[in-house]
Amino acid sequence: MTVLSEHQGSFNNNSPIVRMDTNNELRGLLTRITPDWIVSPTIETSWIRLEDLDARHLTFNLNDNISVSFPQHVESGKEFFLAMDWLCSETLLKRGTRHYNSSGFSSLTLEIFRE
Fold first, then answer.
1. CB 30, CB 13: distance < 8 Å
2. Do 44 and 29 touch, CB atoms closer than 8 A?
3. Tens digits of per-residue pLDDT, 45-92?
């Protein structure tokens, strides 16, 4: 889904959504932090489209080059995640993912991709 804003009686001043060329195999860096403030060493990661992270998730493409992915349903005691992409520039994409387990919040990952 894509959200488009409309302005009655005037033109939309927002720039169109711009996407990085994700047809290339993008490599990035991933850092994880746990609720007790333990930060993992940064590791290399590969680009995966939000839509491909989990087939059961809904993905919304919002204005200002932000996309979010979240589960359609959350079941008590089951693991799930929420993810958000934001395109900072034509060559820099960041992804934040909050992970939850049966006890609650379990970690936050930050991925940074440069073209």
1. no
2. yes
3. 998 999 999 999 999 888 788 999 999 999 888 999 999 999 998 889
| Cα 2 to the center of its chain, rounded Å | 15
Identity at 80, one-letter amino acid code: F
Sheet with 57-62: strands ordered across: 43-46, 27-33, 104-114, 92-101, 80-89, 66-71, 57-62
Cα of 46 vs its chain's centroid, Å: 14
- pLDDT for 93: 93
Strand ranges inside the chain, DSSP E: 27-33, 43-46, 57-62, 66-71, 80-89, 92-101, 104-114
Is the dihedral angle over the CA atoms 19, 24, 28, 32 positive or is it negative?
positive
- pTM of this prediction exceeds 0.85: no
